[in-house]
Amino acid sequence: MSDIASKVKAIIVDKLGVDESEVTNEASFTNDLGADSLDTVELIMEFEKEFDLAIPDDQAEKIGTVGEAIAHIEANIKK
Amino acid sequence: MELKRVVITGLGTVNPLGNSIEEYWEGLKNGVSGAARITRMNIELHKTQFGCEVKNFDPTLYVEKKEVRKHDPFTLYAFAAAQQAIDDSGLDLDAIDKDRAGVIWGAGVGGLQTFYEEVKAYDLSRPKFNPFFIPKMIANIAGGLVSIRFGFRGPNFTTVSACASASHAMIEAFNYIRMGKANLFITGGSEAAINEAGLCGFNSMRAISTRNDDPATASRPFDKDRDGFVMGEGSGALIFEEYEHAIARGAKIYAEVVGGGMSADAYHMTAPDPDGKGASLVMKWALEDAGLKPEDIDYINVHGTSTPLGDIAEPKAIIKVFGDHAYKLSISSTKSMTGHLLGAAGAIEGIASILALRDGIIPPTINHFTDDPEIDNNLDFTFNVAKKRDINYAISNTFGFGGHNATVVFKKY
């Protein structure tokens, strides 16, 4: 697992209070991990803080799964 | 319209004397102080370094572990008290009409800790607030979440009148039931203001005691050397239920609620009217509402916060309302033990009044060392030691910054 992926998963485990084993790349925040709309916004904010990113709302709305979050961050992180 | 009778069928609390009704009542009867040096934050440079904290509170008894961080402590305290009260009431939640069950809750401030932490974390270079900031902080959220927990779809709102909040909540719940608008309520209040913002804020107003070398005796209502109130925190919940509804299900009944009074000082932002005009008016309205004469009352659980001015005004108001009977009353300030729970004060003091009626025991005003010549000490303040006395009617006074006054009248059942 990449460094980014492991950090993303750690944030999800912390914020959603889920077991690490549930946080697969395919897992949907709302359907599989029990997040509501506020949780999802909070997750995006945590990713922004951790990776020093700004994720605009229109892009944030497209991030529905763990894998999509990792992919977005890997593509946009400042190199 | 014939008014319905209202009885109390369940109680719950988390407060500085204990995290259950039993622990609380034991503490009150034995004159235990809930005050100590504050341990949860770095207090070194603070003017006041002690308070009456809730101790050994485990929120996961009431909320799933992963949900805890989504709630301000004032909401967690509300969950605890409400759950205890519902359990105590023996209500079958599957059998009652939830459209006619409501929640009217009091909170003086609301999520002060959440507000403080989130505002402190604000970063202008990344101008965003946590999405839970608003819903965790707003003063009405505890009552809203309690209704969600139990599925109560009846009337639901929060009363905000500083230290009178929970009493206003109880009077509202009482009124809705007696008018036939609902069968039962979870009422009471919660507060959690022992944090940097709460302590320093009240310190700057010179409202709280600075007796750092002896926290346990700092809350000394009506003592000559009192120097301000002691911050407390916690919650109290009461199930108010329409009498016939309670009888039909064979409920245990603690006491009856028979009246409520409300008034305003219309005098000053924080100082009480020195003649106790608002305070005497609120007691007068409460007696009138209950259809009682001053001579009917046996016990007053006073506001008595241990502030220099407030403790002079309230006894004057009592003498004005009760005349010669004032000297036959038992009076006590349980804040001498619990500290001042602000918006939750009326709830735990209402509970103290109800237990006094039930058991015939007047809890004491502890920490009395020296009479204050400005206070009529022929009044019986139940200083230092609890007293056995069978009583039929008790009233609970609460007065809030802003000049809000509320008094609730309870009757032995």
Automatic annotation (TrEMBL), chain A:
Q: In which pathway does it act?
A: Lipid metabolism; fatty acid biosynthesis
> From the Swiss-Prot or TrEMBL record, what is one GO molecular function term?
acyl carrier activity
- The principal localisation class reads cytoplasm
Instruction: Spell out the HAMAP family in the cross-references.
Output: Acyl_carrier
**Functional summary from the UniProt entry:** Carrier of the growing fatty acid chain in fatty acid biosynthesis.
PANTHER family, from UniProt? ACYL CARRIER PROTEIN, CARRIER DOMAIN-CONTAINING PROTEIN
Q: What is this protein called?
A: Acyl carrier protein
User: Species name for this entry?
Assistant: Gaoshiqia sediminis
Automatic annotation (TrEMBL), chain B:
Indicate yes or no for the key word Thylakoid.
no
Q: Could you tell me which pathway this protein works in?
A: Lipid metabolism; fatty acid biosynthesis
InterPro entries named in the record: 3-oxoacyl-ACP_synth-2 (IPR017568), Beta-ketoacyl_synthase (IPR000794), Ketoacyl_synth_AS (IPR018201), Ketoacyl_synth_C (IPR014031), Ketoacyl_synth_N (IPR014030), PKS_Beta-ketoAc_synthase_dom (IPR020841), Thiolase-like (IPR016039)
Would I find Membrane among this entry's keywords? Answer: no
**Reaction catalysed?**
a fatty acyl-[ACP] + malonyl-[ACP] + H(+) = a 3-oxoacyl-[ACP] + holo-[ACP] + CO2; (9Z)-hexadecenoyl-[ACP] + malonyl-[ACP] + H(+) = 3-oxo-(11Z)-octadecenoyl-[ACP] + holo-[ACP] + CO2
User: Gene3D superfamilies from the xrefs?
Assistant: 3.40.47.10
Tell me which GO cellular component terms the UniProt record holds: cytosol
Q: What is its EC number?
A: 2.3.1.179
Tell me which residues make up the Ketosynthase family 3 (KS3) domain.
Answer: 3-412
Q: Known SUPFAM superfamilies for this protein?
A: Thiolase-like (SSF53901)
Keywords of this entry: Acyltransferase, Fatty acid biosynthesis, Fatty acid metabolism, Lipid biosynthesis, Lipid metabolism, Transferase
Which Gene Ontology terms describe the biological processes this protein takes part in?
fatty acid biosynthetic process
Query: Which residues are named in the active-site annotation?
Result: C163 (for beta-ketoacyl synthase activity)
A Pfam family assignment: Ketoacyl-synt_C
A GO molecular-function term, please? 3-oxoacyl-[acyl-carrier-protein] synthase activity
* Alphabetical list of NCBIfam families matching this protein: fabF, PRK07314.1
Which purpose does this protein serve, as stated in its record?
A: Involved in the type II fatty acid elongation cycle. Catalyzes the elongation of a wide range of acyl-ACP by the addition of two carbons from malonyl-ACP to an acyl acceptor. Can efficiently catalyze the conversion of palmitoleoyl-ACP (cis-hexadec-9-enoyl-ACP) to cis-vaccenoyl-ACP (cis-octadec-11-enoyl-ACP), an essential step in the thermal regulation of fatty acid composition.
Concerning its family, UniProt says: Belongs to the thiolase-like superfamily. Beta-ketoacyl-ACP synthases family.
Name the UniProt record assigns to this protein: 3-oxoacyl-[acyl-carrier-protein] synthase 2
User: What species is given as this protein's source?
Assistant: Gaoshiqia sediminis
**Lineage, top ranks:** Bacteria, Pseudomonadati, Bacteroidota, Bacteroidia, Marinilabiliales
Gene designation: fabF
